[in-house]
Amino acid sequence: MANYDVIIIGAGPGGYVSAIRCAQLGLKTAVVEGRDTLGGTCLNVGCIPSKALLHATHLLHEAEHNFAGMGLKGKSPSVDWKQMLTYKDEVIGQNTGGIEFLFKKNKIDWIKGWASIPAAGKVQVGDDTHEAKNIVIASGSVPASIPGVEIDEKLVVSSTGALELPKIPKKMVVIGAGVIGLELGSVYARLGAEVTVVEYMDAVCPGMDKDVQRSFKRILEKQGLSFIMGAAVQGVETSKTKAKVTYQPKAGGEAETLDADVVLVATGRKPYAEGLGLDALGVKMTERGQIGTDAHWATSVKGIYAIGDVIEGPMLAHKAEDEGMAVAEVIAGKHGHVNYGVIPGVVYTTPEVATVGQTEDALKAEGRKVKTGKFMFMGNARAKAVGQAEGGFVKIIADAETDRILGAAIIGPSAGDMIHELCVAMEFGASAEDVALTCHAHPTYSEAVREAALACGDGPIHS
Ligand code: NAI
User: Is 462 a catalytic residue?
Assistant: First the structure.
């Protein structure tokens, strides 16, 4: 068998990006992937297919609700669900095929199958044992259910099943008001399903600032999603074609039930390292079942590294990608680095919600003196022109004394793209005034970012 400088286990965003960077740095590289296509959860059953469905259903929503007001009259499009799923699959195919092309271009070997690590320096795939000076585990994560709820991917589905339902349900119950629940809940609400989200906490998207959570929930409610907050789902019973969800209000009282055609379980994901043989190797794990790593992504066993969802930190494709590039540089003897303080998070609903850095609530709880600048999209001409001004805003959180930007949140059109202006600002240690003094083209959504920066100082112009 060939000898490699690096074998990477898993071809998701962490693994494939790491492989490309390893190859670019002159390392002989192979990737082991057991799926039929490259790209991992993100490209096959996660970020990319959900964005295809979010895009198609957004256009449907626009046609049904906003076209007439813009003078676009006539029949709204009807939904050909089979074709929409085909469109989604084509988008997946273009992306996974793209990674295959990049592997060939960079002379990366794809070892097809599921890997285990019999010893440091060895990777077993089927009957073959491959040798590698370095092994990078990028095996990702899988949906985590809750006690009493068994995912069958038919009536009770994870995000994977929700991306290929045979038909659009009339009633859908979503367990968990996190990113997956709200993105996929939006898709089915736009397709006409009656969507009820049951959430244990008192707010959507735990971890965001309260004002962001409140506005986001209000916007989603206007779009037709219903919420039952502060309620713990205790179980789901299924018959042949229906499901019954039982939940217990945290405030007390009787347990209640909801009927559904489909239940989406969106209660988080858990690291996936099964079958790798890490126990026998003595790789140290964290209490939460993640692979333990040091500041250079090295595990407790020499020559074995781990990155992405299988280690600690937010389970985000771009966090895994950054770690993938950085660990490649470490292995090549360079200085890989990830700034964990500036990793954006985006919810791809309409409007999008994007955050970066620290929240006002968390900073205040720590006793930090901060100031915030907030600007509503109602004051942004471009957002008004496209009918997306209502309810959204840009919020910048800065140090009260130094004016340095510590965090930001945006609810609004293209928030997921706009947040990067603030990411770059934070990378450069910018103050809110630096952003405020930067000329922004008119009319753009980004002007709202500048106005929020102005709001940290002498005040915005358009509010
Ligand atoms: P999540 O952790 O974002 O949200 C799970 C929610 O379920 C929480 O609000 C939690 O309080 C609630 N919950 C847990 N048990 C419950 C119970 N018994 N009853 C009611 N509610 C309950 O998890 P999610 O949405 O499943 O996403 C998993 C991971 O995938 C996250 O780390 C997320 O960041 C990532 N992801 C990111 C995306 C993006 O960046 N756009 C898209 C999809 C997933």
Answer: no
